[in-house]
Design goal:
Blueprint lengths: L1 H37 L8 H10 L3 H6 L7 H35 L4 H28 L7 H23 L1 H27 L5 H4 L8 E3 L7 E3 L27
Antiparallel strand pairs: 1-2
Helix pairs in contact: 2-4, 4-5, 4-6
GO biological process, one term: post-translational protein targeting to membrane, translocation
Keywords: Membrane, Transmembrane, Transmembrane helix
Pfam families: Sec66
Amino acid sequence: MVNWLSLAVPFAYLGILIGSLATFSSLYRKRKAHKAASLEPWFPAHLQRDIYFSLLHLDPSAQSEKKTPAVPESVLKAALLRRASEDIRRILALRSQKQALAMLLQRGSIGDDLWQRFSRAEKEMEEEVKDVVAEANAYVQGWGQTIFQSANEMMQNDIYRQRMAEQQSKVTEEKEAWSQKKATTKEQFMKELEEGSETPQTPAQKSSAPATPAATVQGSDDEPVLVEAETSGNSAAASPGGGGGKKKKGKGKK
C-alpha cells in the first residue's frame, strides 16, 4: 500500500505538468492564429479576382427574369487573363521584397508581425496560382501552362501604353518650356547686340591725325637746320625754286 502511494505522487505530478503544457500550447496556438488572422493583409483587395468570380457565379434564374443573356465564355476568359496579370504583378513584388525583408528581420529592424504578413501573402499567392491554372484548364485543356505567359505579355503591353500616355501628357509642357527658353535667349541676344552698337568711341578715335614731329637736320657749318613735314593739306607746299618741301632757316656765310 505504501509503495502505490509513493508512485502515485510522481505520476500525478507528471499528469498535471503534461496537462498544463497541453493547455498552454492550445491557448498559444489559438492566440497566434487569431493574431495572424487579425493582421493587415500585405496586398489590397484582389479586384480582378472578385470581378471574375462575380461574372462566373451570376445566378442564371436572375438573368432569365431580367431577360439578360448569359455571360459569354470569351468574357470569362478575358476576366481570367486580367486576374492572372494581377497575380504576376504581385508575385514580382513579393520576389523583389523578400530578400530585403529577410535581411531586416535578421538585423532586428522589423518585427515578426511584418514577416508573418509577408509569409501569409506568399502562401495566398501560391494558392491563387494553382486556382488560376485549374480554371484555365477547365476552359481549354493545357491552357493553364500558357495562361501566365499570355498574361505577362498583356501586362507589358499595359505598361508600355501607360508610359506612352505619360510622355504624351508631357508634350505640351515641354513645348511651353522650350518656347519660353527660346524667347529668353532671343531677348538676351538682342540686348547684347544693342549694348555692342551703343559702345562710345575712344578719345584716340575721335581725335585728328597726329602731328608729325619736327626733326633736326645738321646744316652746313655750325648752325642746325630745322625741317618740318606739313601733312595738313592735300599736297605739300612747294618751294619757290620748284624744289621739295624743305625750308632752311639760319644765317648764311658772309
